[in-house]
Each structure stands twice: as structure tokens, then as C-alpha cells.
Amino acid sequence: MLSRVIAVSASGLKSTAPLGAGLIQASRSLHTSSPSLAPVPPLPEAGKVRHGIVPEEFFQLLYPKTGATGPYMLGTGLSVWLLSKELYVINHETVAALTVGTVFVLAVKKFGPSFASAMDKMEEEKAAWIEDVKDQAMACYVDAIEEEKKEQWRVEGRSMLFDAKRNNVSMLLETNYRERLHHANHEVKRRLDYQLALQHLKVRMEKEHMVNWVEKNVVGSITAQQEKESIAKCISDLNVLAKNIQAKATA
């Protein structure tokens, strides 16, 4: 029976293959824009089911019209109708399917909770890891933003720094100019003082030379007789001066 269903499904797939290819090509042609960088919304949670495969919405849909037992009677009647019309024939494949289904249900009942808890734990660990990565990325971005703000603040203060540097350079130039001016003034004054001292020395040497020359000529023009007369005259003058002083003293 299962082989018959598989054959019918395969033929249906072959008949719909061109349509599927066309849909794939159409979807590929539609997805030509750049992918969006917006956050993906979380997937909706799965709805409740009964007996492992029947959605709860199916029972809620039939409750107003058929009551609580309506869905079960619908399933039972559909199964009886399929069997009575021999649309579904019970054979060894049915027994194998029931066996496999029973084993699957028992495995799900026994190992399902532990497997689900393990998967939930893995999902929680993965979500925690993703959250940690997100926090680290956010911290990196916050640090980058702070660094960018600091750089912008430094750029704003760069004009003040340049003004201070310009003032320092101007002060250095002014100091250098004044030092050179003082040095030039000192050198000019030193040379002028040298010229003045040279002139004073020249005048003094000329005076000394003139005095020596006059004295030499005068001394050379005086004879021995004149010298004796001059000495005698000096002695007589001194005697007269001494007498006058004594006379004033006694008076």
C-alpha cells in the first residue's frame, strides 16, 4: 500500500515538475535586490497538537458544529469509508507502518522529553553565546564611538593648539630679534667706546709729548748762570716770605 502511495506521489511530482521549476525561476528572478540588514523577527511558536500530529485548530473548528466527539467521529468515519470502498487496503505494509509508528511513538514518549530538554539547553547556550557576542560587539562599538568623540574633541581643540604654537613662534622670533638687537647695540657701543678711548689716548699722548718737548726746550735754553741766578732768586724770595710770615705771627 505504501509503495502504491509512493508511486502516485512520484507521478504527481513528475507532472508538477515544470511548474515547480517555473516557481523556482520566478523566485530567483524576484530576489535580485540587495539583502536587508534589518533584524530578522523571531519565528512564531508552534501551535498545540493532539495525538502528536493533529492541530488543535482542527478540533476548535469542528467543536461548534459537531461537539466534542465530532473530530473523532469524522476521523473514524473517514477511515471506515476508505476501507469499505477499498481505497485503502490493509496488507503487510500496513502492519509494518503501524509497527514503525508504534515504535516511533514509544521512542518519542520515552526519549522525547530528555531530547527536548537537551535541545532546549543547546538553544539556550547558543542564545547566551549570541547574546555574549552581541554584548562584546556593542561594547566595541561604544568604545569606538567614545574614541571618535575624543578625536572630534581633539580636532576642535587643534585650532587652539595651533594658535598657541603660533604665539610661541612669534615670541621666539621676538626674543631672537631683541637678542640680536641687544648684541648689535653692545657691539656698536663697544666699538664706539674703543674709538673714544683711542681719541683720548691720542690727545693724552699729544699733551704729554708737547709738555715733554716744551720742558726739554726750556731746560735746554737755560744756562748754568741763569740757573744759579734763578736759584738765588728763589732762595731770596723764600727768605722774604719767611720774614713776612714771622711778622704776621708776632703781630
TrEMBL record:
Any Gene Ontology CC annotation: mitochondrial inner membrane
Compartments reported by the entry: Mitochondrion; Mitochondrion inner membrane
Cited SUPFAM superfamilies: ATP synthase B chain-like
UniProt GO MF annotations: proton-transporting ATP synthase activity, rotational mechanism
Pfam families reported for this sequence: Mt_ATP-synt_B (PF05405)
Record's keyword terms, sorted: Acetylation, CF(0), Hydrogen ion transport, Ion transport, Membrane, Mitochondrion, Mitochondrion inner membrane, Transit peptide, Transport
Main localisation: mitochondrion
Family affiliation: Belongs to the eukaryotic ATPase B chain family.
Quaternary structure annotation from Swiss-Prot or TrEMBL: Component of the ATP synthase complex composed at least of ATP5F1A/subunit alpha, ATP5F1B/subunit beta, ATP5MC1/subunit c (homooctomer), MT-ATP6/subunit a, MT-ATP8/subunit 8, ATP5ME/subunit e, ATP5MF/subunit f, ATP5MG/subunit g, ATP5MK/subunit k, ATP5MJ/subunit j, ATP5F1C/subunit gamma, ATP5F1D/subunit delta, ATP5F1E/subunit epsilon, ATP5PF/subunit F6, ATP5PB/subunit b, ATP5PD/subunit d, ATP5PO/subunit OSCP. F-type ATPases have 2 components, CF(1) - the catalytic core - and CF(0) - the membrane proton channel. CF(1) and CF(0) have multiple subunits.
The protein's role, per its UniProt record: Subunit b, of the mitochondrial membrane ATP synthase complex (F(1)F(0) ATP synthase or Complex V) that produces ATP from ADP in the presence of a proton gradient across the membrane which is generated by electron transport complexes of the respiratory chain. ATP synthase complex consist of a soluble F(1) head domain - the catalytic core - and a membrane F(1) domain - the membrane proton channel. These two domains are linked by a central stalk rotating inside the F(1) region and a stationary peripheral stalk.
Protein name: ATP synthase subunit b
Organism: Notothenia coriiceps (black rockcod)
